[in-house]
């Protein structure tokens, strides 16, 4: 789908809100007014963004866990 086709099929409500109001694309009422191809494009973009953030946070959490496990602990003295 070309950009000109996308702009032609957008509802006037979404055109007035502008693309600065991305959250308006996530409203069910707005999604009901846009064509299926555009709705799938928006859903794919959201999935890619969430997956990227999830992957980054998972790697960061894994590194933090590894660093915590590698930290030296206090040595305990043996009791006689």
Structure description:
- The chain has one domain.
- With 80 residues, it is an all-alpha fold.
- It has helices at 3-9, 12-17, 28-33, 36-70.
- The mean pLDDT is 79.
- The longest helix is centred in the middle third of the chain and has 35 residues, at 36-70.
- It contains four helices and no strands.
Beta-strand content bin: under 5%
What would you report as the Rg, rounded to the nearest angstrom?
24 Å
Largest sheet: none
Percent range for helical residues?
55-70%
Q: Secondary-structure blueprint of this entry?
A:
Blueprint (H helix, E strand, L loop, with lengths): L2 H7 L2 H6 L10 H6 L2 H35 L10
Structural descriptors:
80 residues; mainly alpha; single chain
Describe the structure in brief:
This protein is mainly α. It has helices at residues 3-9, 12-17, 28-33, 36-70.
């Amino acid at each position: 789908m070309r950009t000109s086709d996308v702009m032609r099929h957008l509802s006037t409500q979404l055109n007035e809100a502008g693309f600065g109001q991305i959250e308006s694309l996530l409203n069910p009422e707005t999604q009901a007014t846009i064509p299926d191809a555009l709705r799938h494009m928006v859903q794919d973009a959201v999935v890619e963004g969430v997956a990227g953030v999830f992957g980054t946070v998972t790697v960061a959490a894994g590194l933090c866990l590894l660093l915590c496990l590698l930290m030296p602990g206090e040595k305990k003295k043996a009791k006689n």
